[in-house]
Amino acid sequence: MSYSTRDITRQVILTMISGLAIIGGVVILNGMVARTRGIEALGEYLLVRSIAFAIIPVALFGIAVAIPRYMGISRADIKRQKQIFAAGVTLFLRYGLAVILVIFVFLGINPTLIGNRASFTETVLPLVILCVGLSLHQITYSYFRGKLTMAIANILHLINVAAVPIALVWLIPVLSVGKINLWHGLTAGFVVIVVLIKPAIGGLRATEGEETGRQLRKELSSYGFRRIGANLGMLALLSLGPILMARMATYEELAFFSLGIQVNRMFYPLFGPVGIVLLPVFAYYVSDGRSQKLGKSLRALFMAGTAIGIYATIHLWYFAEPLLKLWLGSAPEAGIFIFRLFILSTTAYLWFELARNPIDAYSKVGYNSRNILISVAILIGAVFLGISVLHYPAGVIVTCSYVLAFLVLGGLSVWTCFRLYQIQSIAARFILEIAILNILVLFCVWMITAPFDKSQLTLFMLAGIEIFGLGVYILGLFFLKQEWLMFLLKQFRRTEVSA
Predict the structure, then answer these.
(1) What domain count does the chain have?
(2) By three-state DSSP, how is residue 4 classified?
(3) pLDDT in tens, 449-496
(4) In the chain, N or C terminus with fewer CB closer than 10 Å?
(5) Residue 343: which domain range?
(6) Same domain, 187 and 277
């Protein structure tokens, strides 16, 4: 049984459109919070969200990846797919909620562990409710991923991740940032339960006896526990920095540091949908012994991620000041500097996101866990060295340490993926062409902006300049007949996956 390229392409495009809509929603949401409640309040808001998105993978201990992977392997068995989903929900209710409860008790005893301004009612309680609601959302989203019904998954994702918090900030202006997170978790949980209850009950009914359910839970938990290192590592990567910034730097610096994390994640919809949709597809082909033939597609995607990541890094750095002022209303020099430093990790972050799902699809071995834990060790070591020996400002030290950790993580992820799928190494000519093309585009942009004060650029002017720059860049890529671009265009013309 093969997957139709037309169907896969449609699912990827739908997910990309949804992701771009969520990007727009996040931009609007952060701007609304900053303009109506202040930059420091934005820092508090993003602190809770960053920690929540770090805790959720630990509470789910890999089942959000295991569900679509095993459903993809069991593509021809609808009954077993339902059983797999029911087993995943059961595991979360038994163990995931217990993990969140332990965190709730631990932080409830001493809320200031996550920031000098943290409190039980405004920080800890909203954090826990948000974790429960979005964990249930993630499980349900994974179910629709496994079924490759991405239209439903994307609508659900758009509602719970973007529409709900925007509605709360806009319609109830008296809500504090803590209450926004609290009601976001409650609303998302309610929406998901309405959607989740039917397939969950159907899966339980389809399970033939307790032995079948026990065996499926054992398979899912075994796969998930091999990734516990990755989950704990991502917990450290996503939460340690914001917590250190909240305790050692100003909340303004925290806000711009957290914005750097969010901007990196905003590029995820460009390539993340490929992994989201193709994880069950890759798992199916790997289980069928045809993994090596996927190498060319992965190589082209990594080259595309590099080309886009380098362009984005350069232009976000160059236009950081007007971009942040237009977005948030105001931006101090210290915040702009923190943001610019963080943006240096964008390309490496794209590498990691591109490699993560193919690595998970290939093997039960926790390769991602190893890579993430190495990066976390480098992060902690760099923070300790910078603060205790170099005595630089905490905000700068934490940001530089994060950039170094993501560079290592991105490099290790690419190396692992290339080794597993036996992908041919990328030629130096590709890097040279991309570098020269970016220099030429930046020179054109500089010539246009030279007569103006960049801090005074309007949104219309900024958009026009970037549309011009991106257009020149794309034309340059076609002129150079970049190998990855020609390959990807060829794939979209096919009617069946030739893997």
Answers:
(1) 2
(2) strand
(3) 988 888 778 888 898 999 999 999 989 988 877 776 776 666 555 544
(4) N
(5) 226-499
(6) no
